[in-house]
Every structure is written in C-alpha cells, then in structure tokens.
Amino acid sequence: MSGEHAPCMEDKISTSTIDNVDDYFEIGRCREWCADYSNIALQFPDHLLAYSSHVYNALSSPSTHVHILADTNYGSCCVDEVAAQRLNTQAIVHFGHSCNSRVLTLPTLFVYGREHVDVSQLSAAFRATFTSEDHVLVVLSPVYYHVRKALRASLAQFSHVVFQEYALQQNTAQQQDDVSRKPAEEFSVFYVGPESLALTNCVLTNGSRKVWSYDPTTQTTRLESKSVNKMLIKRFSNIEKIKNSKIIGILVGTLGIKNFRYVIDRMKKVIKAAEKKYYVVSIGKPNPPKLANFAEIGAFVLIGCPENSLLDTSEFYQPIATPYELEIACVDRPWDIDYISDCSSLLNTNYIELPEVTESEDPNERALEKFRSLDVSTNFLNDRTWSGLQQRLGMDEPAVLKDGQKGIAGFYEDEDVCDSRMN
Fold first, then answer.
1. 244 to each of 8, 29, 110, how far by Cα in Å?
2. Which of 1, 5, 192, 357 is deepest in the core (most CB within 10 A)?
3. What are the distances in angstroms from CA 190 to CA 6, 31, 75, 145, 287?
4. Would you say 12 and 213 are in contact if contact means Cβ atoms under 8 Å apart?
5. Is residue 36 classed as helix, strand or coil in its secondary structure?
6. Per-residue confidence of the chain (423 residues) as pLDDT tens digits?
C-alpha cells in the first residue's frame, strides 16, 4: 500500500466489462423495492453514469417518477440526500461503492454492484494466509459483497471467521439496526478489494492488528500493516500544526450523514476549549484553490465520512485534520493505536468539560460577536505586505477607447491574406 493517499474506488474498478447490466445493478431487486414509492432518485458515481439511462428506463413506469443524481457535492460514496430533497423525492437508490454511513431520513436502497471475483482463487488465498485456528475478520469491498455467501461456504472449516456486514437499506422497516460485527478475541483482518480509501481506512482503524489485503483484479495478497506507522506519522503531523494554529476552519464535508450537525457543534466546543477561533466553511468538494482563499485560517478540520476525511493534503497550503486529530491537539485526548475515522463515534466521549457554544439572545451581543470575528480577519489582512491590485480611482487619466480586431482567431479582418499562418 502506497500510504494514505490511495486513489478512490472509482479509479480502480473498471466497468467496461459489464456484460449483464441488469444483473450488475440488480434491476429485479430495485424494481421490487421502488414499487412502494412514486418519486425516487437514482444516485450514480461518475464511472457508472454511462449506465444510468439503462437503469432509468428499467425502473421508470407510469406510477413511478425517476430522477438521476450525479456530480454530488461531496464524495460519491455518501448518499446525496440534500439533492434528492430538492426534487421532493420519497426515496433514494444509491449505486456503486458506499462508505455505508448512516443516512438522515430518506429511505435508501444500496446497490453496490457485482464486480467479478474468482471465489476459488479468493478462498485459496485465504487458506494460504491463515490457519483454521486463526480469528479473522473478513472485510469485503462493497462491490464484492455479493460473493459473501459463496465465500463463507468455501471456508466452512474455519470456525473463527466473521464477515463484516453492510446495510442493504436504511430508514426502512427492513433495515438492520447494527451491522458491525467483530470476533470476540484478538483477530487479524482480511480485506478483499483493490487499493482505495476504503482500504486505507481499514488499515488505520485496525492499527493494532495485522491487515492482509487481496486484490481480485491482480489475484495478489499482501500484508498492509507494514505501512501503518508511516501513515500514522503523517496524520500525527496534523496534530502539531493544529496546536500552532490560532484560527481553525471547520470544513463541512457532508450534509447527508446522521449526526453531522452534532459533530460540528462538538468541534466548536473543542476549539473554544483550546482558546482558539473558528470559522465554519462549506465549499463543496475541497481543493487547494478554494481553501487558499482563507489564508487567515491556519488549519482545517474536515467533517465527513470515514473515507473522505482522509484527504490527500500534499497540495494544500493548510493541513486538513480529522475530528479525532483535532481533539487530540486541543483537549489532550489520548492517541489510540486503532485510529478513529468515524466522527460520529466521538460524540459519546468527553475528556474535559467542554464549554457550551450558544448564541446570545441579545441582538447587540450577537452583533458584537460577529464584529469580533471580522476583526480577526481584518487584522490578518492589515498585516499583509501585499494587499492586492491597487485601483487608483481618480488618480490616472482614463484610457482612450479604440476599435479592436475583428474576425476569428485563425484570421482577423485587418491581417494580410498572405499571412504566414494562412500559407
């Protein structure tokens, strides 16, 4: 594994070999589930968008109005409930890889896809890595989740093997309340899938265990735990940078995960407990040019799903930390070798008494608080040696207007026909 900057799932999974589209997208299961709703949204990641029209035609009916969601505001692994609500839809069908984060309110069906995997080769790789006495947690990438029953049957003699479960639907009467399962004793992890942010997250959150990965596309097995120390050192550097930052930006990286508002409120309390200032920033998918506009912010904390929180920050001007790293930096939370990437799991733990962040009912107090916030930015701008282009209004004579060139880039009217570009 090449470190924390692993490519996303869409970059590693090829869909050019999908022969049976109806089987891959489980059209039969989708049609049965959608029969209970008259207005639904179909969410596709970019690499599956080419098949959206086929799925649309298969699920549309006189009694069911269908919308297609693409180019999500945040990661495609998260359900874009905000976009669906703008269309007044009653339910969402999410296609492709998913982080399986809890959805806010809308009923959601997950269709992970059915990528090809040779179960016999996979079973042989497992047998070559573990013995029948080993306690193992098998984590299948969602696109290979459809082979779980066949793989479990082929490993029947391994009595200490547990499979991680994924939710097939949420906010419905058939949803599973708790799909997380782990062996009772010390265990190793066997991850099935290509290099991706999901694998990075699996390695970090199981830092105290051996993590083996099997890539069905190359049919190779390797020990991933060797790279965990390198990744943790990179994450630990964010903590030191946060300690030295006076202003922290709370970067909203999701609007559809359950409890994300409570996580934002908690981050405000944590930052205030460390006697630092904070801004709440929502700019969609973060990139270096966007965040560079907030030069006064020394570091950001990203509120997102476990996978999208682990950004490749090598090209960013400011460090981007996770809520877990922020708490370590600001309230002396102990560093756990098993990294916590799910920000919702932080809500039930307190290491110091966090101050309440409430807005005053007095309008004068609210105006004063806003002024104090603006004053921080104003002081930062005043300290700059360069403050932008000078307008020099009224100081220079106005320029004389002249006729410009007419025509197209290949040939302008005032140019010679025998111009060398025309030869």
1. 31, 53, 42
2. 192
3. 18, 34, 25, 14, 33
4. no
5. coil
6. 334 334 444 444 444 568 889 999 999 999 999 998 999 999 999 889 999 999 999 999 888 899 999 877 788 888 988 889 889 999 999 999 998 888 888 899 999 999 999 999 999 999 999 998 999 999 999 999 999 999 999 999 998 899 999 989 887 665 555 555 666 668 899 999 998 888 888 888 888 889 999 999 999 999 987 666 677 777 888 888 889 898 999 999 888 788 888 899 999 989 988 889 898 988 888 889 889 888 888 999 999 888 888 877 888 889 999 999 999 888 878 887 788 888 888 887 766 666 665 555 566 665 555 555 555 555 665 666 666 677 777 888 888 888 888 888 777 877 765 555 555
State the amino acid at position 38 in one-letter form.
S
Q: Is-contact 175 198, C-beta < 8 A?
A: no
CA distances for 342 relative to 257, 293, 304, 398, angstroms: 11, 28, 8, 59
Burial of 274 (0-12, 13-18, 19+ CB in 10 A): buried
Q: Where are the alpha helices (DSSP H) in 279-384?
A: 288-292, 323-331, 363-382
Q: Write the CA distances from 17 to 14, 48, 54, 142, 222, integer angstroms.
A: 7, 12, 16, 18, 26
What lies within 8 Å, CB to CB, of 231 at 6+ separation is 3, 4, 200, 203, 204
Q: Which positions ≥6 away from 219 have C-beta within 8 Å?
A: 118, 121, 125
**Structure tokens, 100:** 């399986």
Six-digit token pair at 402?
């002249």
